[in-house]
Design goal:
The chain starts with a helix and ends in a 9-residue tail after the last strand. The protein has 3 domains: 3-99 and 333-355, Udp-n-acetylmuramoylalanyl-d-glutamate--2,6- Diaminopimelate Ligase, Chain: A, domain 1 (3-Layer(aba) Sandwich); 106-127 and 240-330, NIF3 (NGG1p interacting factor 3)-like (Udp-n-acetylmuramoylalanyl-d-glutamate--2,6- Diaminopimelate Ligase, Chain: A, domain 1, 3-Layer(aba) Sandwich); 131-231, 2-Layer Sandwich (Alpha-Beta Plaits), CATH 3.30.70.120. The mean pLDDT is 95. Helix 1 (3-13) crosses helix 12 and helix 6 packs antiparallel against helix 7 (208-218). The strands form 3 sheets. Strands 5-10-12-13-14-11 form a 6-stranded mixed β-sheet, with helices on both faces. The radius of gyration is 25 Å and the shape is globular. With 364 residues, it is α/β, with parallel strands linked by helices. The longest helix has 13 residues, at 141-153. It is built from 12 helices and 15 strands. It has helices spanning 3-13, 47-55, 80-90, 100-104, 109-117, 141-153, 208-218, 252-262, 292-297, 310-316, 327-331, 334-345; strands spanning 26-29, 39-42, 60-63, 94-97, 120-129, 132-140, 167-176, 191-204, 226-230, 234-251, 269-271, 277-287, 302-306, 321-324, 353-355. The protein binds zinc ion. The site of zinc ion has 4 residues, from helix 11.
Length: 364
Amino acid sequence: MTIAQIVGAVEEFAPCAYQESYDNAGLIVGNRQEEATGALLCLDVTERALQAAIDSHINLIISHHPVIFGGLKRLVGSNAVERIVQQAIKHDVALYAAHTNLDSVRGGVSEKMCDKLGLKNRSILQPVKSQLVKVAAYAPLAHAEAVRQAMFAAGAGCIGQYGSCSFSVPGTGTFLAGEQATPFAGKRGELHREAEEKVEVIAHESKVSGVVAAMRAVHPYEEVAYDLYPLLNEYPSVGLGMVGELEKSLEMGKFLHLVKQTFNNQSVKYVTSGRPEVRKVAVCGGSGSSLTDKALACGADAFVSADFKYHQLQEADGRITVVDVGHYESEIFAIEIFYEVITKKFPTFAPYLVKYAVNQISYL
Ligand SMILES: [Zn+2]
């Protein structure tokens, strides 16, 4: 089993293309072609986590937070990040991170929070915008279905919980083949009319080149006519945070205790809306304070996330219940996601997996 195969399973689940522009997810140190001797799963690549991997002869660490985030200008061991990168290279340990891309997919960090809280009727809190492309391909009638299926197989046509979405309209194509052409239909130098079908699908921008290649591979024309339209639409399948509903309304005190228990908190920081019950709950793993207005706008009674500043909580007070469960506590389930994704794809790899979780923050 190569490192490429293991991290490939993670990327299939949470494509790197879904990461935020400021992020540094993906393979950070190492060589994809090397054999993986195991995988250590963690939230952060700490020096202790790296030592645990070295001691266990494990040459791949998969973390949620990228060890190199803001860039490195030198490697002289003057801080933990420099030492970790130096030691990882020295001991041939690959470092891989799935960060905001893991936050942004269905089944990712925020959806795990929904699982733990028992939320139903879930949707993405802040779907990404302007990342969808409409692909319109023109094919002779007898080949339209093959073209459609090829584009679906390459990842096009997904809208929310629906796959294989397309729209077709029949029409007439015209072309005049040049002297060097080998036309599929008609003759060189003669205007030809062909009954065609226009097949429209949408695809995330990261998949468009693959969709076009798959479409061209089954299309019979020498020169394939197709259009790519950038869309302003939201993409409901990808984005930060989630919102869902509790099975039944919970009295405020009970809800706060449920949150505290779910995220193993010794204590939680919170403000309340002043309303006595909670039913609709928004969540976001990690620093989600910028999504408070989104949570309010979608009618959530409560927002569970981390890293709220004093004034942000003040602003929310009386409008929406906000519970700060801690960054580590809200994201530690990322390890479970990695474990499930990898063992689902490679059941025999399981015995070599080591989970590693240490919160460096203490509460007194
Ligand atoms: Zn985080």
